[in-house]
Amino acid sequence: MNKVFTLPASLHGYTTPTTPQQLQYLLQFKWQKSLCNILATTGVNNVLNLIDRHGHRIDSIGLPGPCISLCWSYDGEWVVAVVDSSPLLFVWDANIRKSIPVIDTNMKGLSNQAWNHNSDVLAVGTTKGNLLLLNRRTSKKIPVLGKHSKAIVGLAWNKEDVLACASLDNTFTLSNLEGDTIFQMGLKGEPSKLQWSVMRTPTADSPPSAVLSIVLSNKTIFFHSMANPDSPIELAFQAKYGSIVTYEWFGEGFIMIGFSSGYFIVVSTNMNEIGQEVFQAHNHKDSLNDLRISPALEKAATAGDGCIKVHELGDLKDVYAILNLEEDRGGLVGMEWTDDGGFLSIGTRNGSVYTYLSKLPVIGSASGTVIAYVTALREITIVDQNKSGFTGMTFMYKKEIEFEPSIVAIGPTYFAAGMNTRMNFYRGGWPKPVMKWNAPKPKLSLKPGENVFQKDYIGTIKLATMNMSMAAILLTDGRLQVHSIDERAIVLPPSFTKVFPLQDMENLVITSVSLTNELLIYGTESGHIHHFSLEDWALVSEVKHQSTIQDIYPQPRRARFIFRDENGEAYLCDPVADVLFSISNISAKTIGFIWETTLSSDRSVFVSWDDMFITTHAYIPFSIKEQQCIALGTSKLPHGLKPLIFNDGAVICQTPGGKLSHIRLTTHEPINAKNIDEKNEKAVGKMLQMLYTLDIWALITTITSRKAWTMLAEAALHVADLACAKRIYTQVLHDAGMVITLNDIINTTCEERAVLAGHVCVIFGDFDRAQELFLSSSDPGQALTMRRDLMHWDHALNLAAKLQPSEVSWIAKEFATRLESEAKFTEALGLYEKALETSTRLKVRESVREDHQVACSAGITRMTFRMGDTTRGMKMLNDVEDTKLLNDCASILEGIKMYTEGGGLYERAKQWEKAAEVYTKGKLWNKVAPLLEQVSSPKIFLQFAKAREATKQYEEAAYAYERGKDFENLVRLYVEHLQNIDGAVKIVRETRSRDSARIVSKFFQSMKDYKSVVEFLLMAGMMDEAFELAQHHDVMEHFGEIVQTEASTEMLLNIAIYFESKGNLLNAGIYLLKAKSYIKALRMFIRCPVLDGKSVELAIDTVGLAKSDGLTHELIDYLMGENDGVPKEAKYIFKLYMSLGAYRDAARTAIIIAREEQMLGNYRTAHDLLLDNFKQLRRCKAKIPADLERMLMLLHSYILVKTLIRINQHELGARMLIRVANSISKFPTHVVPILTSTVIECHRSDLKKEAYEYAAMLMRPEYRNLVDAKYKRKIEQIVRRPDKEESTIAEKLSPCPYCQYMMAETSLDCPDCKNHLPYCISTGKHMTIEDWSACPNCEFPSIYKDFKVVVAQTGACPMCYTELKADELSPSHNPEELLRGVKERVETAVPTAKDGITEGSAKEYVTGSGVSGNIASEKESTAPALAGGELGMPFGAVSEGKQAAAAAMR
Hints:
Blueprint: E1 2-7, E2 28-31, E3 39-42, E4 47-51, E5 57-62, E6 67-72, E7 78-83, E8 88-93, E9 98-104, E10 110-115, E11 121-126, E12 131-135, E13 141-144, E14 152-157, E15 163-167, E16 171-175, E17 181-186, E18 191-199, E19 209-216, E20 220-225, E21 233-235, E22 244-250, E23 254-259, E24 263-268, E25 277-282, E26 290-294, E27 299-304, E28 307-312, E29 315-324, E30 332-337, E31 343-348, E32 353-357, E33 364-367, E34 370-376, E35 379-384, E36 396-400, E37 407-410, E38 414-419, E39 422-427, E40 451-456, E41 461-466, E42 470-475, E43 480-484, E44 497-500, E45 510-515, E46 519-524, E47 528-533, E48 538-544, E49 549-554, E50 561-565, E51 570-574, E52 579-582, E53 592-595, E54 605-609, E55 613-620, E56 628-636, E57 642-647, E58 650-654, E59 660-664, H1 681-690, H2 706-718, H3 722-731, H4 736-748, H5 753-764, H6 767-775, H7 781-789, H8 793-803, H9 808-821, H10 825-837, H11 846-866, H12 870-876, H13 883-895, H14 899-908, H15 912-921, H16 925-928, H17 938-950, H18 954-963, H19 967-976, H20 981-991, H21 994-1006, ...
Antiparallel strand pairs: 1-32, 2-3, 3-4, 4-5, 6-7, 7-8, 8-9, 10-11, 11-12, 12-13, 14-15, 15-16, 16-17, 18-19, 19-20, 20-21, 22-23, 23-24, 24-25, 26-27, 27-28, 28-29, 30-31, 31-32, 33-34, 34-35, 35-36, 37-38, 38-39, 39-40, 41-42, 42-43, 43-44, 45-46, 46-47, 47-48, 49-50, 50-51, 51-52, 53-54, ...
């Protein structure tokens, strides 16, 4: 905002510094309403000053005293000053620009005034509460005395001529034009600042109502609604805001309020949100002096702290401008906008008035790329927007002129400014005009802005346009004056002037004009557009239209132009091509059009614009639909801008602030490859359409939107640019089908546009247009080809009759085929007959003709049947063998329910399924029966079966049911009629059919076979019925066995309750266990008598599943005998530990049990028990007790002896027996047999010393009588005659697998590294690293070569007895790792006397090299003890009672 002028304080009588007397009366200033040309001011010098828009004083009036009220009429004609203590009104008339005689009101104490909106009536209030209404038109005065009891402080008229008066008596009144009071109401405070506005009602259908707002005591705002006068509203505000300084209504029910503390807020008065603060700002730090809104400019200004801040109403946060009064920091007294928003005046306390230009008239014009526009009230700026420029060009300069222009025009070499009837022409400084004739070259000044011509016209100027040397001026009376601009240019004859209409066209009223270098184009009120040649000075063409022509917009460098009529419709005209058509997508609010001015472009692109949008259009001179204009897209046009030039995708607009703004059209925006796919693809396609004539191929690698490229390709096809479309489909869309199609069109068609356009129309599916184009071309046969390809047979038949009669037969047959498919049989029959009749015209081979005739005859036959003439049709089929025709005719007969004939035709066509189906529909069962062997459709079999069952032919019915897989009915027949129960049961068990099972269950129920009834009831899903029957007939065990895996918990509990009621506690416990009722299940098992031990084992399983300490203790009490005084076998304790996963405790128990079994001589049982526990511990990765490992080794050594002897390994067998004999106390049941075997094997293996020692042991008194008689004598002989020489064979040595120390091969403890060594399960020897192998099942180690020998002999593993094959065995690849695993798994322990081996015999136990003779340990008691302490029970200490019970179990 630029400062226009300043009115000094001296003009208003103020001095510097200002005196207190001067401050008693504030400066007053008011802008003229409506016209906005004159500013009225008064000050302490009592002079009314009238100032024009440029700050010049027009006139002044001396006043007899200080002015207390200054007011303009709404029409801007009168300004009235009210003077203090004077009854006179001082009036200045703007029409005559001087004061008129004063008006005497005959009232004292005039205080304020207000004009009504029609500017007819002036209301004047007095300090006595009286009112005067003065009619300016009639000079009638209406005094209203006593309107109020105290001074009137506010007056305001609304648009319905209702006058509001507010008084210091704290009341307000509403009066009409006659002064009559129509409403009165008291107020709660002193009123001020009255304003009228409208307020929206809550209901949308109710019109807005007039509302009066009054400030009360400078604190609140009071609202009185005319529609609801009895319900006023009062708004109060926050205390921090201070007192109300002023307020303004704006928008739809919004109020902007300024407060003394510097705040201003916006509140809504709409009923559904009244009082709600929409905006708040602390705009001034110390105070706010005034607030004014300009609706025309849509801006608000606040004054305070020595500055003015201007805000945008659309976004109050946006500060448009800040005006600082640096030269005058005195207090601000107020502001005033002009009605049009063009000026903002600011008054100060010291008497100065500052006026700023806030809005210029948007007046400008353009020629090519050069713009002339108003940048100040009397300033025109010239700007050239051409980016490249050229030599001698002045790109920008400003021209001061003598007046404020209302019209600006510019041409190639001149520009002009005009007002009313006057027009000044100035040189633009562009290149010299072209000279004509042979006149001498003038001396022209190239000084820019030189005034070359001034002309006054005989009417007011409406429009001006110029070319290189001429001007065309259109006057408001419809006349057009054309004249030369600069006579010195000698472009036209001197003083050339012509006035239109010419003498022969005197009745024409010209409404629009445009001037080019060659033509004068003008439009008339009658709708004619004339093209007048300037060179020939003659009318060259005329375009006739129906409505008045409003505007004409010629395209630069083209003959075509756009014109708009009085109806708002726009048309594009090209006289050269004889084209005139309406432009679609043109809004009725469209203001104007601008053609693109790019010099290098061959495009015909233009824009249309209205108040909000700019729409881009492209004119396509040739397309598949003739000429057309397409709208490429719209761009937002900011408020108040006027487009002047459209160049290179940008529109240059003039702003109200006197500047230029560039708007880049959305249709021309640079395409961002990164975000292209995020935009609307349709808009992208429009942009690419705009880029169609530019370099679009650079975008191939960056634009990925297929939709956009598709739209561009289609646009190319619309304008018949097949090469461009083909390239897009090839390089971008990769649409092979379209590429092939376009290639065919390009390669096979001529360059005739009609043919090309016809093919493109086919692509777009506009076949009627394509036919029209083809028929208008030199190759009309293309239309027939198209219709045939599209199977548009009706069109094709008509075209063929005219263009190619030889093709009628083919087309008639195809058309008949389609009509037949559409059930139009009469028409189809006629066409088949026509095709047969005209077949002789076909130009084809005879064989082809015959096939065609056969097809036509077949069609006639089918249509004969379709028409209902079946007798004739059957005759026509007598000699036919064509299966397709037979099928077709049979289908027709089937459709009309002639089943016998239809089935017969199907049989002739060998369609057995269809024949049987048709016979079935006709219930012709005797004809169906012979076809059953050749039929597979279940539907046919079922229908046949039902028919046979109805006639009691059950065997045939059963056969059909079985073939049709209807097992339910088959079972029913078996049970009810054929008594084939076994067959029925077999089917039910195979199919699991519920319905069939129900049938069978009823049969068995009649036979009282309740187990079978239960089974089939369950199979039928009738569980409750089966349960009830099982209860009544005591077959619950059978019921439970069937349902136990699928029964619900509730059902399992019911079964358990039944068994408990029957005393079958074991079964009751089993079903409680399945139902996971562990507590009840355990107690059931405990209550069971211990017979075969099954109940105890189930109790153990229950505890294992429950994982409950309480249940475990309860079971242990039971096993110890605390419940019944009968301790249970120790093996149950072992099973308990196994069930609980306590494998170490199970191992200790297993050792005790194994000892017991071993003492009883059950060596295999003890071996298997220890092996199983060994494997369990290894699986859970627990340490294996050394006792268990050694005990298993000893038992395995004894069992292995038989195998070794069988394979003739007598020495190894003897050494295994020596290992066992060294611990003979572990085998008390078979001491004598073991020692006997040891003596015999040692003697056989030449181990004489060992044979003697164990023979001597046998001859002891306690064993001697127990020796078998057949060995006794031999043993006695060995003892009596011992060999005196040491002839014992030394044992072979092998390396220790840990330290490689050489030691006896059957020794299991290394004397060097002290490690206990793993043993070979095949020989009993200790393992070595070399030749290591293992059983694939039990994983015990074995020496590979010995393992193969043993497996080859026995076929099984010597440890776990799993069947093996020798050739499947292989040596281990990682013996070191396996050896380390063996060591880590087994606990390290040394045998003690507790194990029955003394310290002295330990070595012999390990090496097996002999007997020390100290065998007293064999007399030690080896009975197992199950005391709780030894078992190490994990659930707490065992009570003394439990220990006693455990001791009793020994």
